[in-house]
Amino acid sequence: MKYIVSKASSVYKWLIIPVLALALTSAGHKTPHPFHVSVVEIEHNAADKTLEISCKIFTDDFETVLAKNYKAKVDLINPPNKAAMDTLVKKYILSHLSIRVNGKPVVLDYLGFENENEAAYGYIQAENIATVNKIEITNSILYDKFDDQVGIMHVKVNGNRKSTKLNYPDKEALLNF
After folding, report:
1. Where are the domains of the chain?
2. pTM of the entire structure?
3. How far is CA 2 from CA 21, 29, 123, in A?
4. Which residues pair with 127 in a beta bridge?
5. Beta partners for 114?
6. If 0-12 CB within 10 Å is exposed, 13-18 middle and 19+ buried, where does residue 119 land?
7. How many helices (H) and strands (E) does the chain have?
8. Confidence of residue 20 (pLDDT cuts 50, 70, 90)
């Protein structure tokens, strides 16, 4: 499956670049981030009739919330037991992200996660999605940890990309195509 983390639209470059730069600067030092951001990318693959979804979450924040919520030792960078970490990541993401397409809820299938630099990427797929005219996203990733959390979402349908953001406590977004 092909996942593309595309560049932010010009409308959001002013927001994403400084926020991520500041957050990445402090992420490697295990100090508190000045901003708390997650990014959800959704792309409709018309040929396969799927939604391809990636969730980018800063690793240290994600490990902290997983350890707190599931009372477990969490290491997403060098997991001693990858299957156990997959279980926690799956449980968390699927309980904090839901999608409706054309007014109908879709079933999200967790595919796995990987860690890259200071971010963990969770990969999800939804099948049997022939067309997307309207997409409703409920996103509360890390809302149970930070009351200043920002959720940025990029959705691409038929080559048309739309972006939006949610500021805690708002967790619902609607995009029409």
Report:
1. 10-176
2. 0.81
3. 26, 32, 11
4. 50
5. 121
6. buried
7. 3, 10
8. very low
- Of all helices (H) and strands (E), which one includes residue 88? helix 82-96
Q: Quick check: 153 and 37 in contact, CB under 8 A? A: no
CB 2 within 8 A of CB 148: no
**DSSP label at residue 108:** -
Q: Measured over all CA atoms, what is the biggest interatomic distance in the chain, rounded to whole angstroms?
A: 44
Instruction: Report the alpha-carbon distance of residue 104 to residue 172 in Å, rounded.
Output: 15
Whether omega for the bond prior to residue 169 falls within 30 degrees of 0, making it cis, is: yes
H/E segment holding residue 150: strand 149-157
How high does pLDDT run on average in the chain?
86
Q: Which amino acid is at 140?
A: S
CA dist 157 and 129 (Å) reads 11
